[in-house]
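Take a specimen:
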Amino acid sequence: MSSKTKIIVLHMKELIYTAIFAGLAVLLIILLWWMFASGEGKKEDTVETLYVPGVYASSIQFNDSAFEVEVVVDENHINNISFVNLEESVAAMYPLMEPVLESVSAQIYEKQSLEDITCENNNQYTTEVLLSAIDEALDKARVNHQ
């Protein structure tokens, strides 16, 4: 019995280059498949723009005092609600205005809506006046306003 032994000599450089090129080819095929096949069946997510970004104000008149409620919005969010031109004398005459605005604005930031805003029984009128002013400012900001 004679056995013929075959000896195969492989160069390490050739093996490394072959493995790298094979890996790159597989990566290229996966990348091409992902680029061209992933667009099928995928709907574009279109988010409807609610507001024109900016700062909008609405005026509140109490007796001889006037001040403004300022609302800052971006395309889809109410970002800030604050008083503008609120004099100290008006704040002293109507001490519930600032705490009620803080409470109402916190609820609006969370819900991003004027719906279902809760208030305490002794703050109902103040809450209604503020919500009316905020709604008026948001009407100016809405996209459909033009």
In short: The chain has a mean pLDDT of 85. The CA atoms of residues 51 and 143 lie 5 Å apart.
